[in-house]
Amino acid sequence: MADDKPKIDLETIRHSTAHLMAQAVKQLYPDTQVTIGPVIEDGFYYDFYRESPFVPEDLEKIEQRMKEISSENLDITRRELPREEALRMFDEMGEPFKREVISDIESDEPISVYSQGEFTDLCRGPHVENTKTLKSFKLLNVSAAYWRGDERNKVLQRIYGTAWHTDKELRVYLKRLEEAKKRDHRKLGKELDLFSVTDEVGPGLILWHPKGSRIRCLMEDFWKEEHFKNGYEMVHSPHAARVDMWKTSGHMDFYKDNIFSPMDIEGKEYVMKPMNCPFHIQIYKSRLRSYRDLPLRFAELGTVYRYERSGVLHGLLRVRGFTQDDAHLFCRPNQIEEEIVKVLDLILFILRSFGFDEYRVYLSTRPEKFVGSEDGWEQATNALKQALEKSKLKYEVDLGEGVFYGPKIDIKIKDSLNRFWQVSTVQVDFNLPERFDINYIEENGQRNQPIMLHRALMGSLERFFGCLIEHYAGAFPLWLAPVQVILLPITDQNQRYTDEVFKKLMNSGFRVEKDLRNEKIGFKIREAQLQKIPYMVILGEKEQENNSLAVRKRRSKETVALDIDSFIDKLSLEVSKKDLGEAIQPI
RNA sequence: GCCAGCGUAGCUCAGGGGUAGAGCAACUGAUUCGUAAUCAGUAGGUCGACAGUUCAAUUCUGUCCGCUGGCUCCA
Predict the structure, then answer these.
(1) How far apart are CA A530 and CA A192, in angstroms?
(2) Coil, strand, or helix at residue A414?
(3) Is residue A459 left, alpha or beta, with left meaning phi > 0 and alpha meaning psi from -120 to 50?
(4) Predicted local distance difference test score (pLDDT) of residue A278
(5) Is A445 left (phi over 0), alpha (psi -120 to 50) or beta?
(6) Which of A47, A107, A288, A563 has the most C-beta neighbours closer than 10 Å?
(7) How far apart, in whole angstroms, are the C-alpha atoms of residue A395 and residue A398?
(8) A369 CB below 7 A from strand B atoms
(9) Phi and psi, residue A126, nearest 5°
């Protein structure tokens, strides 16, 4: 596109809009102190310190004032100051947070401030030249944030906003937010009758309704099939165990905050399991293992319970009881890399089968608190790195973000609002083999400690399902759809024929329903459409006479005339290919 | 857990110190209809829970529970 004047960087616009907001806030509420206001994806925020928090009505006032300042056409000017002078200036302005920020700036870096009208803010820049450039913005919400992200620090008021080059872009963005809300898995979960959470059961504990369970069964079946194909054994373990086991594993030390309070059974303490690993270790230990047995791969759809603080719960994506598609691999040290590569392959295969092509990969390295030797960590981290490179995966390193027992690879996928959620993980564990003293007999007859890997592909079925719902906007591909075909007779004259077709489809193994209600065809179609059923089959006099079907696809207004056998062939093919069809629609 | 907002029928939402409202869904009846809503009637509520103020509270105040957004934390 030919454009005479070069466009100003969106980031600059957003950053300047954050300043504009700070200026408006200071004008309206002079007792407010400013802190920092960075650019984020699609917008910006600014954190303020203030005795009384902002309420939503304040946002309107602030936004109004921003518009006024914008039309004052204030020039935005940059100045560099000696450190001392900058400190003095912000002291005089009564901005202690800025003082802290300045003291964090490297001594050889210049201290720059930007001014517009009476307002001056510490900032690296760059900024737009004049406030008149800032027109297309909207303040979105307020929330609390801790200064420097530490909950021991002061609580700040964070205001989020978005800013764009033009009003049109802004409108498009706001529209996109609205569309994203429509595919929120919590909303769709209710509309499509997939799952629920009730007060009586308790927060973060999921009830899977028949339709959701149907999908879960299909996910599980697929998962099991692939695991058997890939040399895994299935195991099952109980939901609770004596607290002693968790002491041995170290969970009572390192993970206590996340474990449901113990219950007393005949004077012995038990807890709900927060993880499956110690159980799999028990199975490993149930007999003597030879190097010939390795690698051993124990997999389980294991339901775990973790205490999560009430404020973090979120539909299916963050819950207190969930089923991990867990597995633990026991192998010899020289098998680690190969096993990790295989796990990564399996992860990618599964994610792609569900249509997730966009994901982020992280390698988390040794944290401050860790068990095992530095050498061991180094080796394991290298094994993970090499496996990532062999799998040609682009990844980011999360320094020091590993768990205490070993380094890990995490894979995150995003929900409809572009928030990323961790699903897949591969973790090396130095801790449990040691604590439970597991071993195997080497070729030379010596006992050796196996390396243990934890891994999950979908992570938790709940979270994965939540992401799936949003990924497909509730329109599941045929192989996963809880109802694949709905039969819609025009009048009750067509009921006999409908029953006939129903039986044939049912006997061919399809999930089919019929809508025999005394309603007009338009009404039935509307409902089937809202339920996002992949195929609607309209059955009237014409079809009955020709012994055919009028097939209408979700997301299409056209019908195709098919005979029942070719329809069945078509469905079978689509299911066996796990065809994603039109299931994935960008927002 | 923290800050803010919210909680009224199965769902979506209106209302407001003086015995509770709509649409959709449900139920009953009529209608037998060709591609996104046929018509009529009936029933449905401890206004999240508990306490306080008041002659009177679903409405005001407080506490608690739950939900939403974000922070912190994580699959």
Answers:
(1) 8
(2) strand
(3) left
(4) 97
(5) left
(6) A47
(7) 9
(8) no
(9) -80, 170
Which of A 260-299 have CB under 7 A of nucleic chain B? none
Measured to protein CB atoms, the chain B nucleotides within 7 Å are 1-5, 11-12, 30-38, 65-75
Say what the pLDDT of residue A6 is.
Answer: 57
**A275 touches A239 (CB < 8 A):** no
State the pLDDT at residue A1.
40
A192 neighbors A531 (Cβ within 8 angstroms): yes
How many Å apart are A531 CA and B21 C1'? 29
Average pLDDT value over all residues in chain A: 92
Domains contained in chain A, CATH given: 10-175 (3.30.980.10), 187-466 (3.30.930.10), 485-576 (3.40.50.800)
Residues 546-585 of A with CB under 7 A from strand B: 550, 552, 557, 559
Q: What is the pLDDT of residues A81-127, one digit of tens each?
A: 888 888 888 898 888 898 888 888 877 778 889 999 999 999 887 89
Token couple for A324: 């991990």
Which residues of A are designated catalytic?
277, 306, 324, 326, 328, 408, 454
Contact (CB, 8 A) for A110 and A131: no
Contact flag, residue A529 CB and nucleic strand B, below 7 A: yes
- The residue with tokens 């409809």 is A416
Q: How far is CA A427 from CA A326, A343, A447, in A?
A: 11, 11, 24
